[in-house]
Write a structure and sequence with these properties.
By secondary structure, this protein is mainly beta. The strands form 2 sheets. Strands 2, 4, 5, 6, 9, 10 and 11 form a 7-stranded mixed β-sheet that branches. The radius of gyration is 14 Å and the shape is globular. The chain contains no helices and 11 strands.
Length: about 130
């Protein structure tokens, strides 16, 4: 049974930082693309970042809205994927979801339909 469990959300002032973590179990972690999505109230879920591991290297991709502020990292031994969020803005407020995608398909998976498994989400609130 695949499980993705997020942690690290909370309340932070604008300009501050938070680090989200997602612990995965029940899947061959290193072969899966791992992604972060978010959903703000009244809005559709949107892509934040994704990480894939291939040939001993990690490849990452970011939404333009978070590029330069957020960093995704994965640990294929601990089966975790983290999202370091710096210079947070009010508009980053959302529920953040971790997701896992089976191998194959797009080089960088940015659409939620490409992901097979999802965590329960963790709330990030940025106060202005």
């Amino acid at each position: 049974q695949v499980q993705l469990v997020e942690s690290g959300g909370g309340l932070v002032q604008a300009g501050g930082s938070l680090r989200l973590s997602c612990a995965a179990s029940g899947l061959p972690f290193s072969s899966y693309a791992m992604g972060w999505f978010r959903q703000a109230p009244g809005k559709e879920r949107e892509f934040v970042s994704t990480s894939r591991w291939s040939g001993g290297s990690t490849y990452s991709h970011y939404a333009d809205s978070v590029k330069g502020r957020f960093t995704i990292s994965r640990d294929n031994v601990k089966n975790t994927v983290d999202l370091q969020m710096n210079s947070l803005k009010f508009e980053d407020t959302a529920v953040y979801y971790c997701a896992a995608a089976k191998p194959g398909g797009s080089y960088y998976k940015t659409r939620d339909v490409e992901y097979n498994y999802w965590g329960q989400g963790t709330q990030v609130t940025v106060s202005s």
